[in-house]
């Protein structure tokens, strides 16, 4: 089961479901949105880049 933070739920309801919480850019088919362990929606590359603060934080 996936968990979405209350902050991300507010973003979703404000029309920002397809916008990265980390950088404000829209998701693409090459770099889709994923949920972090703390419930934020970010680019998949944010969770796979060792230089990102979200590295390794993708929910299963």
User: How many distinct folded domains?
Assistant: 1
How many H/I helical runs?
2
Order of helices and strands: HEEH
Mean pLDDT rating: 97
Number of strands: 2
Distance between the termini: 8 Å
How large, in whole angstroms, is the Cα Rg?
A: 11 Å
Oligomer: single chain
Strand order of the largest sheet: 1-2
Unreliable stretches, pLDDT < 50, 5 or more residues?
none
Strand content: 5-15%
Report helical residue fraction.
25-40%
Could you say which structural class the secondary elements and strand pairing correspond to? alpha+beta
Q: Based on Cα principal axes, name the global outline.
A: globular
The major sheet is characterized as: 2 strands, antiparallel
What this model shows, in words?
By secondary structure, this protein is of the alpha+beta class. The protein has one domain. The protein contains 2 helices and 2 strands; from the N terminus they run αββα. Strands 1-2 form a two-stranded antiparallel ribbon. Strand 1 and strand 2 form a beta hairpin. The chain is globular and about 30 Å long. The N and C termini lie close together (about 10 Å). About 20% of the residues are buried. The model has no long low-confidence stretch (mean pLDDT about 95).
Features:
single chain, 60 residues, alpha+beta, two-stranded antiparallel sheet
Quick overview of this protein structure:
This protein is of the alpha+beta class and 60 residues long. The chain has helices spanning 6-16, 44-48; strands spanning 33-35, 41-43. Strand 1 and strand 2 (41-43) form a beta hairpin.
């Amino acid at each position: 089961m996936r968990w979405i933070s209350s902050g991300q739920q507010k973003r979703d309801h404000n029309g920002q479901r397809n916008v990265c919480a980390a950088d404000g850019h829209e998701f693409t088919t090459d770099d889709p949105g994923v949920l972090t362990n703390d419930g934020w929606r970010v680019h998949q590359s944010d969770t796979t880049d060792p230089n990102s603060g979200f590295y390794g934080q993708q929910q299963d």
